[in-house]
Amino acid sequence: MTNDTVLEQEKQEVVEAAAVKPEAKLIHGTQINEDEEAVEIISEAAGYNRDNLEITVESRQLKITSKEEAAAAAPGRELIRQEYASGGYARSFRLSEKIDVEQITASVKDGVLRIRLPKHAAAQKRHIEVKSV
Amino acid sequence: MYKSRLDNIFGDFFSDTLFSAPWGRRTQPRSEVNIYHSDAGYELEFKAAGLQSGDVDISIDDNKLRVATVEAIADGFSRTFELPQDIDQEKIGAEIKDGIIRVLLPKLAKAEPRKIELKAL
Q1: What does the DSSP assignment read for B103-117?
Q2: Three-state DSSP class for B63?
Q3: How many CB pairs under 8 A join A and B?
């Protein structure tokens, strides 16, 4: 068996494992994924949408804050049992030099915030083809 | 399937397994809930980031309200609550928006106090 075949088999197994694993739809906390091109932050932001979240980047500091306090204190409504805090969203991440801050994009849907942080082309892993001479 | 646990809306919330069990050994999949009370009724707000209406199943049986994810959701949750007596079960409503499931439990309309006149005989 050549090395090529072993690599092909491994790749096949990885693809199959990914196909079997159900996509995590219900999001708890914050996950950070990284691939060759970008880092992705996936964060639970239940109750928030594009109107009440603000994302800024300054001095390689990514800040996510809620624009206003969540409307928990509606008049005449008393909180009688609390299992989670609902008083605003604030998180910040320090970005590595690898991240191209000009290319950052973000979206929020169904209370899940996704921020994509692409890497500078120079920081991306490159595959170099070895030529036979 | 996961085990369902019965919650009382007025239950002692510190006896809840979420707070008594060591974090690392939490096995009960669940969703955190905040409960509000007003003159009109109760509002239950569950955290369910990422879910849409088709992912959630809400039912009432034998005076118990069950809020659960459908089978297809990996690591989903199921929570059951004993309903207070003064709830109008016919009028219970629910919605999901921005990853929050909101269940509205209106109170039964109060009978107007009736004044009984004393007649002089």
Answers
A1: EEEEBPPPPPP---P
A2: coil
A3: 101
Residue A71 is predicted with a pLDDT of 53
Which among B36, B43, B69 is the top mutation candidate for probing chain A, defined by the most A β-carbons within 10 Å of its own β-carbon?
B36
CB-based contact A111 B98, cutoff 8 Å: yes
Largest CA distance in chain B: 76
Predicted complex ipTM: 0.71
Helix, coil or strand: residue A32? strand
Residues B8, B12, B18, B22, Cα dihedral to 10°:
-150
Which pLDDT belongs to residue A69? 60
Q: What is the mean pLDDT of residues B109-121?
A: 83
Which residues in A lie closer than 8 A to residue B10 (C-beta atoms)? 80
> pLDDT digits over B15-33, tens only?
333 333 344 344 445 789 9
**C-alpha span between A30 and A67 (Å, rounded):** 20
